[in-house]
Specification:
One of its GO terms (biological process) is ribosomal large subunit assembly. Belongs to the bacterial ribosomal protein bL20 family. One of its GO terms (molecular function) is rRNA binding. One of its GO terms (cellular component) is ribonucleoprotein complex. By secondary structure, the protein is mainly alpha-helical. It has a single domain, classed as Ribosomal protein L20, C-terminal domain (c-terminal domain of poly(a) binding protein), CATH 1.10.1900. Helix content is 75%, strand content 0%. It contains five helices and no strands. α1 runs parallel beside α2.
Length: 114
């Protein structure tokens, strides 16, 4: 009995990976084994960094809120504690945006909790 191979599926798999490797440098873009490893590593990085991006943005928001709060003589932790105590439910993203782009609104929030 002849050996059964599915060359159509094999070629499609390779084409898919080589298409993902488009724009890579050197043999990473056109040699199957090298491209496969490069694409696998890139996918690992992209999966990981989608989560890291969320951490980085939260950290940025905290820095901006802290800077805004300190301009009004209050630390970040005190500011957030008083927000919770006064049942003001603004998330860090919104507070950071206010502190950066709308300082008078941020000052109104600070005066409300003092």
């Amino acid at each position: 009995m002849p050996r059964s191979v599915n060359s159509v599926a094999k070629r499609a798999r390779r084409k898919k990976v080589l298409k993902q490797a488009k724009g890579y440098f050197g043999r990473r873009k056109n040699v199957w084994t090298v491209a496969k490893n490069a694409v696998d590593k890139a996918m690992q990085y992209s999966y990981r960094d989608r989560r890291v991006k969320k951490r980085n943005f939260r950290s940025l928001w905290i820095m901006r809120i802290n800077a805004g709060a300190r301009q009004h003589g209050m630390s970040y932790s005190r500011f957030m504690g008083k927000l919770k105590a006064n049942n003001i439910e603004l998330n860090r993203k919104v507070l950071a945006d206010l502190a950066m782009n709308n300082p008078e609104a941020f000052e109104a929030v600070v005066n409300k909790i003092k």
